[in-house]
């Protein structure tokens, strides 16, 4: 009961059906943009297969979530500071320690993250790609799932499948969408509308448009410089788009949900609310 009253943070999971559509770039830039808006923000690299959010920012991560799970250290020991005071939780890479979280692992994670529930405004989860059950379980532990959708036909179908599995298996019927690597804002909005039309025909899901990020070489150049785009090229179209999306998200002010409580192991308390 106590925890519910003190949970301030909103958990925003960034997900996609298909790999390589720009989840990590969106997560990182969005998290930095939120931090710049003065929101206390934490970026959690929850990509199970290939953790790289910190690499994208040129930051070394001597310790990761894997060390926390192995009880080698606490969460505060692994957090690294990014631009604008952003807190970054580096993900475990490779050997799959986080690929199969058992019950005690999940309890450990809930315990170490819980103190941050009352101090943060946003926790951005860069999640693994696709509909693997373990990746989805984490994606579903959020207040708002944001799907990154690119214009490729396969990305469209895979985003549809993800939307379907989130609705049918996880009861998540309200999602945000960011279109990425589109020609311009108009095209991005068009892509979103097309996606919403298809989804509304077959699924009970409401989709909310958060914004579009253009296909912009500055994103790739920033990656090569090991900086996020909005730091390296603040005037670029992509950087401005990320800023607008952060504004839209803050404006939306997503409500805390039971699914987000689960991230902190608070779900048992939900019924008492
Ligand atoms: N708006 C954009 N304009 C140009 N290039 C982009 C844009 N967004 C992402 N990219 C490029 O697309 C590639 C994939 O991006 P990113 O790593 O963010 O995708 P991802 O969905 O996290 O991939 P994975 O599934 O491997 O985790 C990167 O090379 C990145 O530079
Ligand atoms: Mg990624």
Low-confidence stretches: none
Alpha-carbon distance between the two ends: 7 Å
- Average pLDDT level: 91
Order of helices and strands: HEHEHHHEEHEHEHEHEHHHHH
Structural domain tally: 1
Bound molecules: adenosine-5'-triphosphate, magnesium ion
As a percent range, the share of strand residues is 15-25%
Please describe what this structure looks like:
- This is MinD/ParA family protein.
- It comes from Allosphingosinicella flava.
- It holds the Pfam family CbiA.
- One of its GO terms (molecular function) is ATP binding.
- The protein has 273 residues and is an alpha/beta fold.
- It has a single domain (2-264), classed as P-loop containing nucleotide triphosphate hydrolases (Rossmann fold, 3-Layer(aba) Sandwich), CATH 3.40.50.300.
- It is built from 14 helices and eight strands.
- An eight-stranded mixed β-sheet has the order 3-4-2-5-1-6-7-8, sandwiched between helices.
- A hairpin with a 5-residue loop joins strand 3 and strand 4 (87-89).
- Helix 2 (23-36) packs across helix 12.
- The mean pLDDT is 91.
- The structure holds adenosine-5'-triphosphate and magnesium ion (MG).
- Residues 23-24, 47 line the site of magnesium ion.
């Amino acid at each position: 009961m106590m925890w519910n009253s003190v949970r301030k943070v909103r958990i925003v999971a960034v997900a996609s059906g298909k790999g390589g559509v720009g989840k990590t770039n969106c997560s990182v830039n969005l998290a930095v943009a939120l931090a710049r808006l003065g929101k206390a923000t934490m970026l959690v690299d929850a990509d199970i297969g290939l953790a790289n959010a910190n690499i994208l920012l040129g930051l070394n991560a001597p310790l990761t979530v894997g060390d926390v799970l192995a009880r080698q250290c606490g969460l505060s020991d692994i957090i690294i500071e990014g631009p604008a005071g952003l807190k970054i939780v580096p993900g475990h890479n490779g050997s799959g320690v986080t690929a199969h979280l058992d019950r005690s692992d999940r309890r450990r994670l809930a315990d170490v993250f819980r103190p941050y529930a009352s101090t943060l405004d946003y926790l951005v989860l860069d999640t693994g790609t696709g509909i693997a059950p373990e990746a989805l379980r984490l994606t579903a532990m959020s207040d708002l799932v944001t799907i990154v959708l690119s214009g490729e036909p396969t990305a469209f179908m895979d985003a549809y499948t993800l939307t379907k599995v989130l609705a049918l298996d996880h009861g998540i019927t309200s999602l945000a969408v960011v279109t990425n690597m589109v020609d311009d804002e108009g095209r991005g909005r068009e892509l979103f509308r097309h996606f919403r039309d298809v989804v509304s025909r077959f699924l009970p899901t409401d989709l909310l448009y958060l914004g579009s990020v253009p296909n912009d070489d500055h994103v790739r150049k920033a990656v090569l410089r090991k900086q996020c785009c909005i730091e390296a090229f603040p005037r670029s179209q992509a950087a401005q788009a990320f800023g607008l999306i952060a504004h839209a998200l803050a404006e939306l002010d997503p409500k805390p949900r039971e699914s987000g409580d689960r991230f902190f192991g608070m779900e048992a308390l939900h019924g008492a609310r």
